[in-house]
Amino acid sequence: MNTTWQIGGETVYRGGGHVMDGKTIVGEPVDEEGVLGRVRASSDGNCRGAVEGENRMQALWLFSSDACGVYGYRRVKIEHAGRTSPLGEITLKTERGDINIRGGSGMLLRVNNPSAADGT
Known about the structure:
By secondary structure, the protein is mostly beta strands. It is built from one helix and eight strands. The protein is globular, with a radius of gyration of 16 Å. The N and C termini lie far apart (48 Å).
């Protein structure tokens, strides 16, 4: 069995195990790198879990089911997540200087139903 850790802290027990948050099963490994899990709200309440009852298993790649925010970039935060106007536009902000997002960086984006976003 091979054990890996997701961005956000969950543990993946590959080769017959599960994706775990402590002692709670939160997903399943699907290949050498990916996992399936149900998106969960972050413990600090800053990021949503299931949206509009959509609680199916989803591909989370290298991320924990409750991963939220920016990892690996000190002093960088999400200023605008794209949930409000301008819809779909994400803005990152740093305390000082420019932001250099390096090649090979990854994002886990959630796509909402466009008609649900504008209330129609």
